[in-house]
Amino acid sequence: MDTKRTLYEIEVALSKIDIFNYIKNIVAFNVNGLGQSLLIQHECDMLVLSKSGYLTEIEIKRSWEDFKADFKKKHTHDNMGIIKNFFYCIPLSILDKVQEFFKDKIINFTDIITYDEDLNIEFHRIKGKEYVPDFNYRKLFLEEQLQVARFGAMRAIKLKEKINNLINKNSNE
Questions:
Q1: Confidence of residue 95 (pLDDT cuts 50, 70, 90)
Q2: What is the distance of C-alpha 123 from the center of its chain?
Q3: For residues 165 and 172, what is the distance between their CA atoms, to the nearest angstrom?
Q4: Tens digits of per-residue pLDDT, 100-122?
Q5: Which residue(s) pair with 101 in the sheet?
Q6: Cβ neighbours of residue 60 under 8 Å, at least 6 residues apart?
C-alpha cells in the first residue's frame, strides 16, 4: 500500500470536507445500485447525494497498483445519466504517477482528490488537461434519492454490528 491509512479513515476524512459534508448531504459507501430504483452498474466506493438531488461518485484508491487495476475492470465509471461529478481519490504520494498516467488519455472525471498520512485532503486538476463536464446527467428522482439513503443506512447498521461484535468479543476475554 502507498498509505497506512485505512479505507474507513479515508471515507471519514472525505465525508467531513465541505463539498461532501455528511451533515449537509447523504453519503453512502460501497453502493452497487443495479436495480429498479438506482441504475448504477458498478460498485461505487462513495456516493454523495446533494440537497439539490445531484449525485457525486468518489473512487477511493490506496495504492498505485489499486489505481491501475481499476482500468482493467470490465465496467467503466459511466455516469449512467445520474452522476454529475466523478473523482478519483488517491494517496498524495502517487499523484505524479497518476498525472503521468492520464497525460495522453481522454479525461472522463472531474478531478483528482489526494490525501496524505495526516488525512489532509486536496483537489487537483490533471496537468495540461482541461476538464470538459459531461452534461448528460440529471437530478435524481425522489425514489432514487431514497435508495441512496437506504444504502447509507444499510452500511451504518453493518458497521454497528461490527462494533457490537468487537465489544462483545473484548468483554468475553
A1: very high
A2: 14
A3: 11
A4: 998 887 777 788 999 999 999 99
A5: none
A6: 7, 10, 11, 14, 45, 46, 89
Answer for the pair 98, 112: CB distance below 8 angstroms, yes or no.
yes
What does the alpha-carbon distance between residue 91 and residue 89 come to, in Å, rounded to a whole number?
7
Which cell goes with 47? 456516493
DSSP-derived letter for residue 15 is: H
The closest alpha carbon to 12, from 27, 30, 24, 2, belongs to 27
Of the candidates 36, 62, 33, the residue with the CA atom closest to the CA atom of residue 49: 33
What is the C-alpha to C-alpha distance for residues 39 and 1, in angstroms, rounded to an integer?
Answer: 32
pTM: 0.88
Tell me the CB-side half-sphere exposure of residue 72, using CA atoms within 13 A.
5
Q: pLDDT per residue over 42-89, tens digit each?
A: 788 999 999 999 999 999 999 999 999 988 876 666 667 888 899 999
User: Burial, 146: exposed, middle or buried (Cβ in 10 Å; 0-12, 13-18, 19+)?
Assistant: middle
Q: Is the pLDDT of residue 97 over 80?
A: yes
DSSP class of 22: T
